[in-house]
Amino acid sequence: MAEGEKRGRLGGKSSNPYHENKKYPEPTICPRCHLAYHNGRWQKAEDNVSSEKPHSSHCPACRREIDRFPAGLVYLRGSYLDQHRDEILNIAKNQARSAAEQRPLQRIMWTETGDEHTEIATTDSHLAMRIGKAIESACKGELTMKHAQGAELVRVYWERSV
Ligand SMILES: [Zn+2]
């Protein structure tokens, strides 16, 4: 029940209400994804953390997933995408999978295809950029990245029409 202190910050001065750099008591276990905060970072709890009463707190990635508040948004568009959608979305998934081996807080939150574009939301801005760069290097096209001012949100646009 370590809730409370964070919610009020949304929309306030803090550029990062999700406290990605916050220190937690050790060990802390995320009740949702079971990552453990240990040695100063969130990691997979492979060997049982030796504490009879670990603290419980949602990790920053789960907080973003619960609130549906991404740190990165990738927008894909163009007719090339329509013809190669599975292939391109697989590139994104593979990037997320390999990122998560070292950084389990970097996750894809959702992939949604609308009329204008396909949107991939991530819990971490670096993952969004990584996905954009990987798609560009595999499929060419045009890549643009925009950091929203004062906010910890990156928008990545990729487009290829032919
Ligand atoms: Zn979690």
What would you note in describing this structure?
The protein is of the alpha+beta class and 162 residues long. The chain has two domains: 7-67, no CATH class; 72-159, no CATH class. The chain is built from four helices and nine strands. It has helices spanning 60-67, 79-83, 85-102, 125-139, and strands spanning 28-29, 35-38, 41-44, 55-56, 72-77, 108-113, 118-122, 142-147, 154-159. The strands form two sheets. The chain has a five-stranded mixed sheet. A four-stranded mixed sheet has the order 3-2-1-4, with no helix packed on it. A hairpin with a 6-residue loop joins strand 8 (142-147) and strand 9. The chain is elongated, with a radius of gyration of 17 Å. The model is unreliable at 1-14 (pLDDT under 50). The structure holds zinc ion.
